[in-house]
Amino acid sequence: MATHIELNRTGDKMPIVGFGCWKVEKDCADTIYNAIKAGYRLIDGAAAYENEVEVGQGIARAIQEGIVKREDLFVVSKLWNTDHHKDHVRPAFDRTLKDMGLDYIDLYLVHFPIPVKHVDPKVQYPGGWENPETKKMEYQRSPLHLCWAEMEKLVDAGLVRNIGISNTNVMMLLDMFSYCRYKPATLQVELHPYLQQNNLVRWVQSQDVAITAYSSFGPASYVQLNEAGKTAKPLLTHETIEQVAKKYSKSPAQVLLRWSVQRNVAVIPKSMNVDRMKANLDLFDWTLEDEDIKTINSLEMGARFNDTLEYGIDLPLFD
Ligand SMILES: NC(=O)c1ccc[n+]([C@@H]2O[C@H](COP(=O)([O-])OP(=O)(O)OC[C@H]3O[C@@H](n4cnc5c(N)ncnc54)[C@H](OP(=O)(O)O)[C@@H]3O)[C@@H](O)[C@H]2O)c1
């Protein structure tokens, strides 16, 4: 079982298990440092997670202590919706780089294919979904092809090694393929047994675009955020997952992560707890048998938790 996915164009080896930085709030620098110490080499951040300064501090400490060199790490960040305009991509990226104290990023993603009216970082940083003045989500005429051209310029400038996109579908990728100079290296989407997106995964992988799954534990990180997260049966204590876990003497979390990596889909679990961090990395010396994969696959129900509609935003993005 490969521990990396080789990315198109650069051939860079993206670790198939990384550490997710969303909602790493308290003791963030220590958490990132601990994650690197525990063995994580991919750090999945974003301007929108409001912790890039602390993430950078955690990385700096791990480098200072000689645990890793910068080139051993694969650092990911994401461009927020309010910075899609061609005049705002570079300044937004520069802020991320400065906040993290780095001089390049391994992978920069367009966080959502939603161009939202720009917000001056002096007024609000990072921007949100709603405009701070009107308290409404306002769109902006900044087409993705112009935004993508700016992302490509970051590659040309040697500031970003790979570029990709998140929260989108086949239709948009097909359109991107028709104008891009640099094909997206990765697509990051919500994926777990309740939302398997088999056609998307199969087709995107066949186009040599790597897939990263976020929220591998399904509703776990949405319990406090929305109704779907609150009401769905947790996957981490689901009897089907527990039964499979028992068979392999693994935890339900490990089964959910292994289920992804076994289809060559990268995972980026987030945990504040060092033992769980370590366990989430321990996915490589065992294999789920086909019958257990089938059992897990039977949990499909098309349930999406990170859905704009679930946050009360009237945008059926995934329809
Ligand atoms: N592109 C996007 O739009 C997008 C959207 C969402 C997420 N993401 C990325 O994906 C990452 C992961 O997704 P996520 O943050 O939604 O959550 P997740 O990794 O699916 O789940 C995190 C939750 O699971 C718990 N957990 C972690 N390991 C566990 C284990 N071994 N046993 C039991 N519970 C465990 C964590 O609690 P503890 O911390 O207490 O362990 C936390 O409550 C994010 O951090 C972010 O980097 C990207």
TrEMBL record:
InterPro entries given in the database record: AKR, Aldo/ket_reductase_CS, NAD(P)_OxRdtase_dom_sf, NADP_OxRdtase_dom
Keywords associated with the record: Oxidoreductase
Domain of life: Eukaryota
Matching SUPFAM superfamilies: NAD(P)-linked oxidoreductase
Protein species of origin: Hesseltinella vesiculosa
Positions that bind substrate: 111
Gene3D superfamilies: NADP-dependent oxidoreductase domain (3.20.20.100)
Site (Lowers pKa of active site Tyr): residue numbering on this chain: 78
Active site: 49
Family: Belongs to the aldo/keto reductase family.
Ranges for domain NADP-dependent oxidoreductase: 26-299
One Gene Ontology molecular-function label: mRNA binding
Pfam families documented for this protein: Aldo_ket_red
Gene Ontology BP terms: arabinose catabolic process; cellular response to osmotic stress; cellular response to oxidative stress; D-xylose catabolic process; galactose catabolic process
Record's protein name: 4-dihydromethyltrisporate dehydrogenase
